[in-house]
Hints:
Layout: H1 3-6, H2 9-46, H3 51-63, H4 67-77, H5 87-112, H6 116-124, H7 129-159, H8 171-179, H9 186-215
Helix pairs in contact: 2-3, 2-5, 2-8, 3-5, 4-5, 5-7, 6-7, 7-9, 8-9
Amino acid sequence: MDFTSAYSRDNLSFLLEGFGLTLWLALLAIIFSFVLGCVLGIIRYAKVPVLSPIVGLFVELVRNLPLLLLIFFARFGLPELGVSLPPFWAAITALTLFEAAMIAEIVRSGLNSVDKGWVEAARSSGLSYGQTLQQIILPIGLRRMVPPIVSQFISLLKDTSLTVVITLGEMMHHANIVMGQNSRIVFPILLLVAFMYFIVNYVLSLFARRLEARQT
């Protein structure tokens, strides 16, 4: 093992460049999947005619497929349908769809956890279903959803490493390039990559625990 060569300025700079792309990829996927997941979850909860069964089918289909398959499909399958995406946006598409399906279930469960008494009291006071959803159900349900949603985002950050299979220049891709130059630095590089993932995910997990503690 050669820690000195592994942690040279050039290698560290190259890995940090890949780590920056990893964080950017995760951030965009988190934003897109959260918005889409909330919409899908609300539609399923509200039992919107026609839409709810379609959304339910989509959610169950995506949740039961490997994320790696979705990444391959977004990068190599969509061009067969006339939609060609560069690696970065193929990864965003796959991660967004996969995580949105997970978040949709979290949202639906969170909304279902709201005491029916609150709903009945709101309706009896003259609020419409839409007003009840907006003013009562969503505020209460969203507070309960925060810890599991943050946990899902932690999983998303780790899942970005799967995009290495489509040669996206994120951290694992850069790590593979560095390790390919010298077999004596494989362990130090993997150790550094593991540490970088750990730090970010640990901070997020502490945030999730604090939010969960506030709910109790």
